[in-house]
Design brief:
The chain contains 10 helices and 14 strands. The protein is an alpha/beta fold and 335 residues long. It folds into 2 domains: 199 residues, NAD(P)-binding Rossmann-like Domain (Rossmann fold), CATH 3.40.50; 98 residues, UDP-galactose 4-epimerase, domain 1 (Alpha-Beta Complex), CATH 3.90.25. Strands 3-2-1-4-5-6-12 form a 7-stranded parallel sheet, sandwiched between helices. A 3-stranded mixed sheet has the order 7-11-13. The longest helix is centred in the first third of the chain and has 22 residues.
Length: 335
């Protein structure tokens, strides 16, 4: 399906992007890996062209994307703290950079896959959270993603098929070019602390329920998405109503932070012979949803893409605690 197709991936050196690159390569596609190398974890790919491009540089971006058949746009200042520490840069990259990418896709009429975020929702008011849930972000990061969604819907309408993924809470690591690529997400943090025989620290109340999805499953969903969009773009039945479709991307595996900590504690006892303590502290963070529920509708991805997740939280935790060596744990990020 993707044999000899040229797929561009922005943010290719990052946590999700580097895994997405390998998904496309494994599917037989030619990949143009694009990253500004400012915070990437992977700096080269043995089987892909790596272009050092800042997506704010419209001419350089157009040159890098010029021969692509589809674009998977993942480049962003990711997460609440990084956006709030440099809001001007966050706006320029997340909003203006995404407008540059979308404008290119519009002009060349090529499919676009975009990584939105559940941060656009803010405090959820209906469950499970679906594509049509109101957008009311409580952080700058969420606001930039909401602006991205609005821009992509407006610019692709009647011109370009696109998928916007509202992605649930990520976890897991993957190996890429000899590097283990990860990110400080709650499950990953708890695994690292358990490996280091350190307490699992929970910000109160810890009862919030989230949907968790493995980074490898997310990357597979993007491959399904690009395949589907290319088929749609080349279909004789394509009509003027093409445009962007919002798709929640989640596993249906819903756990509270306390559930995750207790799971890691139990599995660590079973696999490594010790159970880390669980400590509670007050939550110092602002601009965070505080509701007790964040369950997500998984049907749209299943119906549109035939997508099913393959990883579970317990399976991932068990493999990590069974196979990995003891190592230092970060102190500066807790959940």
């Amino acid at each position: 399906m993707l044999d000899s197709r040229r797929i561009a991936v922005t943010g290719a050196g990052g946590y999700i992007g580097s895994r997405v690159v390998h998904e496309f390569l494994d599917a037989g596609a030619e990949v143009i890996a694009i990253d500004d190398r400012s915070g990437n974890q992977v700096s080269s790919f043995s089987d892909a062209v790596f272009e050092t491009v800042d997506i704010r540089d419209n001419q350089a971006l157009r040159d890098a994307l010029s021969d692509s058949d589809a674009v998977c746009h993942l480049a962003a200042v990711s997460g609440i703290p990084d956006c709030e520490s440099d809001p001007d840069r966050a706006f320029e990259i997340n909003v203006q950079g995404t407008e540059n990418v979308t404008w290119h896709c519009r002009n060349r009429e090529i499919p676009l896959v975009f990584a939105s975020s559940m941060a656009v929702i803010g405090e959820p008011v209906e469950f499970p959270i679906g594509a049509d849930h109101r957008r009311d972000p409580v952080s700058l990061y969420g606001l930039t993603k909401k602006m991205n969604e609005d821009d992509i819907h407006d610019l692709t309408r009647g011109r370009v098929p696109a998928h916007l993924f509202l992605t649930a809470n990520l976890y897991g690591t993957h190996d890429c070019e000899g590097v283990t690529v990860g990110k400080e997400t709650v499950i990953n943090i708890f695994i690292e602390r358990a490996l280091a025989d350190r307490p699992l620290t929970i910000h109160r109340p810890g009862t919030q329920t989230f949907d968790f999805i493995h980074v490898n499953d997310v990357a597979r969903a993007y491959r399904h998405s690009v395949t589907s969009l290319l088929e749609q773009a080349n279909s004789a039945e394509a009509t003027a109503d093409i445009g962007a479709v919002d798709i929640p991307l989640a596993s249906g595996e819903q756990l509270s932070v306390i559930d995750v900590a207790e799971l890691v504690q139990r599995v660590c006892g079973e696999e490594r012979g010790h159970e880390p303590e669980i400590n509670y502290v007050e939550d110092p963070r602002e601009s965070q949803p505080t509701g007790p529920d964040f369950t997500v509708d998984t049907e749209p991805a299943r119906e549109r893409l035939g997508f099913e997740t393959e990883h579970t939280v317990e399976g991932t935790v068990r493999r990590a605690l069974r196979e990995r060596e003891k190592q230092p744990a970060s102190d500066h990020t807790k959940y």
